[in-house]
Prior knowledge:
alpha+beta, RNA Polymerase Alpha Subunit, Chain A, domain 2, 2 helices
Amino acid sequence: MKPNKIMRTLLFNWPIKVFSLLLAIGIYIVINYALLDTRVVEIPLQVVMPVAYEASSNVPTSVSLSMRADERYITMIDAAAVRAVADFSHVRAEGAFSAPIVLHAQKSFVDMEVAFSTDPETIRIYFVKSDVVPEAKDLGGIEL
């Protein structure tokens, strides 16, 4: 085949070819995302508090966990196998601090295509200096 004939073949009826390609992409997207289901549950939130500071604002005890997966697998996901942790151990001064909510899931979810998200994604807590002195650790006779 000559190069000129190949170009004519590709460019012949190009609107129909572009429409067919867009239609195929659209069908692929609809089939993949129509089979996804979302389940929302409340899970407990573990908040790691800083040493020598206490929270003066409300500390949330739970978050909404949104799980998005194939509708065949969504019922098999145990929400108790997912832990939510917000770590404020980095706080070294008084004031308002934010921390992201980090999710830890069991390894059994590695085989499935599952998307986890929380509401809220971060929490904000106001800390003040604590009047209680943290307990001294025993370092083998060394006093702190």
